[in-house]
Amino acid sequence: MSQFTPPAWLDIRAIEEALACAVAPDAARLRAILDKSLAMQSLSLAEIATLMRVTDPDALSMLMQAADAVKQRVYGDRIVLSAPLHLTNHCGSECVYCANRRGNTMVQRCYMTSVDIRDAARKLVRQGHKRVFLVTGQLPNADIEYLAEAISILYTVYDESDGEIRRVNVNVGPLSAADYAELRAVDVGSVLLYQDTYHPEQYAAMHRSGPKADYNRRINGPDVALSAGMGDVGLGLLLGLAPWQFDVLALSLHAAHLVRVYGTGGHTVSMHRLRPAPGGLEQAPFPVSDQDFLRCVAITRLAIPYTGIILSTREPSGLWRDGCSVGCSQLLTGSVANPYADWSPLPGPGGVPFPIGENCHVDDVVSFLLEEARHLPSFCTACPRLGRSGVEFLSMVRESGMKGQCGPNSMASFLEFLLNYATPVTRRLGEALIAEKLAAMPEPDKGAAERLLQKVRAGRVDEFI
Kind of pairing, strands 207-209 and 94-95? Predict the structure, then answer.
């Protein structure tokens, strides 16, 4: 740990003391902590650690229900859908758990050309996607011109149904202020800077060399991005690299630090579990069970009420489905198979396509949200395009939540999907759910939603308030 200099806000001793002192709460203590979160107040380390000690089934159920209630209060019952788009599996870092690590000889390397990017984007657009998470890993020499070109291409792809990519977020390593200026110039959305693990010793063990091995640069990346004028940054954990309890507490400190200094915190938090990969680890150093994964999602929602929690449909065992009811507000889906159909397989008998994951089409995800979860799928991109980001977004969330805007806007974006991209069965289910949700809406939200829906049915696209 001596080779690192954690920032002042990352109080490792306080984290360890909170974990050591926490005990399972009685009913009154649990209720008090949950009520604090429901009031949109960030929890202390001691309170978060106390939630981690809940084991009684009834108390755990109460915790999960409270997490869903917080999410509902902030964003309503919508689940935003986005697609990850992997530009390359080239990487300059040696992260022992990752198939893309620089020294892995089991994989063939590929950069998407401009033609490849445009073709992949068309495939996503034809599925109905409007939001893309551009994934690059640790590009050698941080080729910012390549990134900027990719973003510009994505914004110029259209199809015959007036489909288009309306928001591009970027998952990339820490950049310089000048690099962020180039990304702003091409209208990038959030910059996603995942710490993966905040535990210094485990970070060193997992990240052997290359740009990502620099713990200090990585952990200070969000500060640099916000100081350089980026509107939003997204944080993230790769659960399993270190004890999840430590990482969730550190994550809460990070978000609190950003709010304190910049007036805005982690706009989103991505939560994924480490999974085996060719040439990577066969097992996580600190495996996270299905139940603990859901606890992580719920406790993070309670600890950082305003954040958008992102899960992936690549999650083994389909656990993302349960996550939608314990605090998740966004899903990454629909890009594993189709956009990468022409990528070369990995070397060796049988071959494994890149990226590794489950074949989960967006229509399948939408059907689940409609039939089982009863959540409203959303492709909305209104907030960043209306300037509702950073400080303004956080202020709106804390004062009244976003559900007043999210409800009508989500309905309009979802109806656009149903009319242009959904299968007949999904369209029928979606129309029924829209009618059901509309009937339950309070005024004036209902009136706003009805006006937007009328415009979409008349052939208008990209309608929002």
Answer: antiparallel
Q: What is the pLDDT of residues 141-192, one digit of tens each?
A: 558 899 999 999 999 998 776 689 999 999 988 999 999 999 999 999 999 9
Write the burial class of residue 2 (CB in 10 Å: 0-12 exposed, 13-18 middle, 19+ buried). exposed
Supply 81's token pair: 């859908």
Six token digits for residue 181: 């200026």
Q: Which burial class, exposed, middle or buried, applies to 66 when counting CB atoms under 10 A from its CB (0-12, 13-18, 19+)? A: buried
Of the candidates 324, 325, 342, the residue with the CA atom closest to the CA atom of residue 333: 324
Other beta carbons within 10 angstroms of residue 442's beta carbon come to 9
| Residue of 373, 370, 253 lying closest to 325 (CA atoms) | 373
Catalogue all structural domains in the chain, each as residue range(s) with its CATH number: 70-387 (3.20.20.70), 397-457 (no CATH)
CB atoms within 10 A of CB 3: 9
Tens-place pLDDT, residues 207-228: 999 999 999 999 999 999 999 9
Determine the Cα–Cα distance for residues 8 and 22; give it in Å rounded to an integer.
Answer: 23
Longest CA pairwise span in the chain (Å): 64
The phi, psi pair for 416, rounded to 5°, reads: -60, -40
**Token pair in block for residue 163:** 């489909």
Six-digit token string for 446: 């209902």
